[in-house]
From TrEMBL:
This is Oxygenase. Pfam families: p450. Its cofactor is heme. Heme binds at C60.
Length: 116
């Protein structure tokens, strides 16, 4: 099985369809970042069911930096701030749909006192 693709044809890949394919992901429409914690999936373009940074010669050149910065920034935010809901509201894990998924009630970041 194959396809004849004429020379100089642009081929577009539907990343959304690949990323939400139930053959590759259990419960693909649920936000479960923990599914990647102990995963052996290489996000650098070798697995074609998961390539958020592109692949091949067009892979994102900032990938190594982005990978390190995510851990550094999240660790710094957790270390330097206490997180609370406005006016001591009870924690509600409901989501509000939009262009991105957000919590109904925003968290307030309270800087911790300097520890010298």
């Amino acid at each position: 099985m194959g396809y004849n693709i004429p020379k100089s044809t642009n081929v577009m890949i539907n990343i959304w369809a690949i990323a939400t394919d139930p053959e590759n992901w259990s419960d693909p429409f649920s936000f479960k970042p923990e599914r990647f914690l102990d995963s052996d999936v290489d996000y650098k373009g070798q697995y074609f069911h998961y390539f958020p940074f592109g692949s091949g010669s067009r892979i994102c050149p900032g990938l190594p930096l982005a990978h390190r910065l995510v851990h550094l920034i999240l660790g710094s935010l957790i270390h330097e701030f206490d997180w609370e809901l406005e006016d001591s509201l009870p924690l509600d894990m409901s989501e509000k749909m939009g262009l991105t998924v957000r919590k109904l009630e925003a968290l307030k970041a309270i800087p911790r006192k300097t520890r010298f």
